[in-house]
Structure prediction request, 743 residues.
Amino acid sequence: MAAKIGATLADSTPYWPPQPTPPKGAPNILVVLFDDVGFSDFGCYGSPIKTPTIDALAADGLRYTGFHTTAMCSTTRAALLTGRNHHSVGMGCLSNFDSGFPGYRGKIAREAGTLPEMLKPHGYSTYMVGKWHATPLTETGPSGPFDGWPLGRGFDRFYGFMDAETDQFAPELVRDNTPIEQPTSYAEGYHLTADLVDQSIRFIADHQADAPDKPWLLWLAPAACHAPHQAPQHIIRQYDPVFEHGWDVEREQRLARQKAMGIVPPDTVMPDRNDGIRAWDDCLPDDKRVFTRLQSAFAGMLDHADRHLARLIAFLEEAGIKDDTLIVVMSDNGASQEGGPLGMVNAMGPYNLKFEPMAEKLARIDDIGGPDSHSNFPQGWAMASNTPLRRYKQNTHGGGIRDPLVISWKNGIAARGELRTQFAHVSDFTPTLLDILGLEPPQVIAGVPQMPLEGVSFAASLKDPAAPSKSKAQHFEMFGHRGLWKDGWKAVAFHPPGTPFDTDVWELYHLDADFSETRDLAAAEPEKLAALVAEWWKAAETYKVLPLDDRFGPRFAENALRYHGARKRFVFHPGMGHLPADVAPDVRSRSYVIEAEAVIPPGGADGVLLAHGDATCGYSFYVQDGRLHHTLNVGGALATVSSAEPIAPGLRKLALRCRQGSDGRTFTLAIDGRVAGQVKTHIGFATFISWSGLDIGRDRGSPVAPYAAPFTFTGKLRRVVVTMDADQDLDGELLGEAEMARQ
Prediction:
């Protein structure tokens, strides 16, 4: 009988299909995508910030000086992943909203396959670690849909966060498709960057143990250096003396280094300061101290990230696979202007109309970069980060779209420490990798016919420094700012929000002779400018850029209204997991009620009933010392109402009523329907609650109120109900400013 069964099995056709065979000599691929790091911020691009790991990769490979992105994070990620222009794939602006138009859905179209979807049929394992921000945030809740999450777009494993940013000491973590707790606490030394590198090493170590002959793609997208700028204090403080000379001297020093390195031509001219930036010498001494520390936090965050990247590179070396790994290091856009002219210690306050005067910043100078800060540097330092380029992230001048790119591949690139000056665009990245591997993009993925790639491979430049730049024109657009590069020339228009597009002034630069865009040739070359502008409009029609829309706040408000619709009631039951902020109750600028049914044991109970947010902003409804409390935390300013009497044992209905009025907000506590306490305050959530989400029965992140997290409720919680009134009144312009700081 055994022989008969064996014969049957041996003679039968295998049930499982054969495994795909990788291309011959296919390298592993490590993509390291930094966030909001300016053109000059890596040491090998002219900065005094310590980035020895990145510098060593550059010395062992190539640095590109003509690499361009899209001016924002979601859009660069969409173009980088798909090899198409960001509007073409539906990510015209941000994943935070869906405007309804084809180019602005906030989600990568299924017709635009991603790099991992293209590589998996050819034997690659694919891993994603860090920031995603490429699917609508209203689809990041526990019910998804998950088709736009990393695993839904071709990655085998994911560990990271879904939003544009997260707290580095208490992040919103997701493993695969499930929110999880951070593995250790801030008190135990936790920092997100270290955790992301730990998980990267884990994925690759597991891969090498299980399938060492298969190539892999690891996409590592740390939060550095997006706000909040947070890093260990001993690293931050060491940069104070480095930057105390201010942004004007810093720009000149960086440009001098860039010229010495060959990053920019010797005749490159430093542009004037960006609009609204004061001369450093005109700043007051106390202002300088604060501005310097805010820059030190940015520098410390990048330094810290480089130290942990060193661990990953060392692991690849120890595993004997570094030389067979194509390593790419880049940034998603230029340095950010969202810190404003003065920077912020805790941005959550100013964006909720709780202003942060310089005296307060100075008093909190030693908190900058710590767990109860949400710091961002002033625009003067962002200008220095983008040396020698004009403007910032969001803009289509060089400061927003020209970024560092380091490529190192010991066994595939013979050049060591060389520069490449060719123009390249982020949409060219995936075509370049496919070209290196000798692969054609698939015509169909998961039954969906694919749109053609729009990027152009720059693989030839890896070997040949004289290889030409792409012959195809490249357009740019972000919030109405526009640009087009072609054959070394660039037309660009800065668009003041709220003004007619027809009144925008187009500028013309010959980038091959004017790296920093300082010599406007629009008047001297009107025909050249007209031809480039006409080509921009043609590209705008072809690649779904139209209609142009420069609105900030209204688009966010419309998206929130579209998502929540008529829903005004949320019911939360024990056992639920963490709820991201964008799918939690929207209690901004409105009246609402929180009702909790809880059993208080005879000995009393303590703990959180419902908490949304973290130490920088949010609200918490909780029991402490036997009494009922509600704390509103707006940028660190607390308004607390407490019950006058303890809560009696037994099943209790505990309630908080927020009544919004023209003169402020009134918070009233009730126990079993009887008023138990009341407070009136002028602070409130004018634009948002928090980037940290909601939990019941505990406060999972850094604590919203004066207790030690997680402050788990020790009674029995039956359910929590949040009911919102229909009186919401959001300030669109203020909302836009707050949301843009989030990106």
Remarks:
- The chain is about 25% helix and 20% strand.
- The longest helix spans residues 285-318.
- Residues 228 and 256 are 30 Å apart (CA to CA).
- The mean pLDDT is 94.
